[in-house]
Amino acid sequence: MTLTVPGATDAAAPGAASAAGLAAHQVCVAYGGQRVLDRVDLHVAPGETVGLRGPSGSGKSTLARVLALLHAPDGGHVTIDGQPLGGVRHRLPAHLRTRVAILFQSPRAATDPRLSLADIIAEPLRATGTSREQAAARTAELADLVGLTADLLTRRPHAVSDGQLQRACLARALVHRPDYLLCDEATAMLDASTQAHVAAVVTDYQRRQGAGVLVITHDPALMARWANRVVDLPAA
Ligand SMILES: Nc1ncnc2c1ncn2[C@@H]1O[C@H](COP(=O)(O)OP(=O)(O)OP(=O)(O)O)[C@@H](O)[C@H]1O
Description:
Layout: E1 4-5, E2 22-31, E3 34-44, E4 49-53, H1 60-67, E5 75-80, E6 83-84, H2 94-97, E7 100-103, H3 117-127, H4 132-146, H5 150-153, H6 162-174, E8 180-184, H7 192-209, E9 212-216, H8 220-226, E10 229-232
Parallel strand pairs: 1-10, 4-9, 4-10, 7-8, 8-9
Antiparallel strand pairs: 2-3, 2-5, 5-6
Helix pairs in contact: 3-4, 3-6, 4-6, 6-7
The structure holds adenosine-5'-triphosphate (ATP).
């Protein structure tokens, strides 16, 4: 079912503050005095796929970064299962920040060119103190899931295609088994077959894990196929 919600408020956001899900409450963000998000509510329940759309510059990526706990809002807050999260990135405890992962449009902008694909996938595990053996096992498992061969895992970003690098980014996003996965135009740069494969891996993961997914895309066909409901952000 697709529900179009005019304005900046997610009409499906449950009233109960303790409701299960990842939620933005009255989120405001400004860059240099220019307001991009103005009291935005958005709720992603476990297992559902919410589409987020809006004109270019309306703040979709900004909202995704706030929900991914990468950008502190100037007003409002984010909750997971009703728990307000104070702080972003490494100021949050690992058990909270690893519950949300994000996949960006450009894998090249999101990866360190000096690392092999195997090290890119294992990066978040090193940050949480996982042993080298466990990290290697998890990397191999995820490489298999996203369709990366052992040969590709030894290469660095300059020696693989955008599609292969995005598969590594997807594996990295899933490495901590997040409860919420945010896909910000994550398949826009990919050819049709890689796009379909990435979407299938995400959908299969979602089904097994009961994860909530937020999809940002300008592609109406992909939105209709993927999202259970759609929230519209108005122009900033
Ligand atoms: N770090 C930043 N510093 C200053 N302005 C920024 C920054 N990030 C985004 N903006 C501005 O904020 C506005 C919203 O950007 P954002 O990328 O969130 O929009 P969007 O809806 O995702 O756009 P698109 O659909 O084109 O990707 C834009 O005007 C953008 O130029």
